[in-house]
Amino acid sequence: MADVVQQLSELRRAIAMWRESDPAGIGKIYERFFSPVREVVRLRMGPQIRATADSMDVVQDVFVRLLATVPPAELESESDVLKYLSAAVENRLRDLNRFHKRGKRAHAREESLPDDVSDLDVRALAPTPSQITMGREKYERYLEVVQALPDRQREAVILARHLLYPAATCARLLGMNSPAAFRTLLARALARTTLRMNES
Among 1, 85, 97, 166, which has the minimal tally of Cβ within 10 Å of its Cβ? Predict the structure, then answer.
């Protein structure tokens, strides 16, 4: 229990530093949330974006953009930060998708990340709970299977299992009538995932 209290205290300190534009704050946020954010990016990247962008680039871009923003006042817990970062991921992927759909991908227009982000270590600093539970090879297979799910089923898995939203929130985000309808969708997605995992 003392560890949980200490981690929450450290997280709140990092958020406070981030609000004051202290690079050490965003560095601490990056260290803690790199792996879960990359997991969300990998699960949400569609085939068109996967063909032209690397998940690491998207993750770095999300964190670089955070350097220029002040976090909202309601960020206090680990789940608050993860949900905030997930929304940033969704916005970035939406931007990339629009960009590629317009056919404006020109190598001359591509920009490198600015030099001032070189301090961000791009290695996964800590495995996600999914990686620990499954082991690396099975985890990679799991990501492939979830990425291949129909869009609504994939989003149901991300919202409920990776972002830990309650069923009522998931239903609202997906425009569904009730938490029960969402649970049915999630059950189908998880059953399909299990069947595909067992095929390999």
Answer: 1
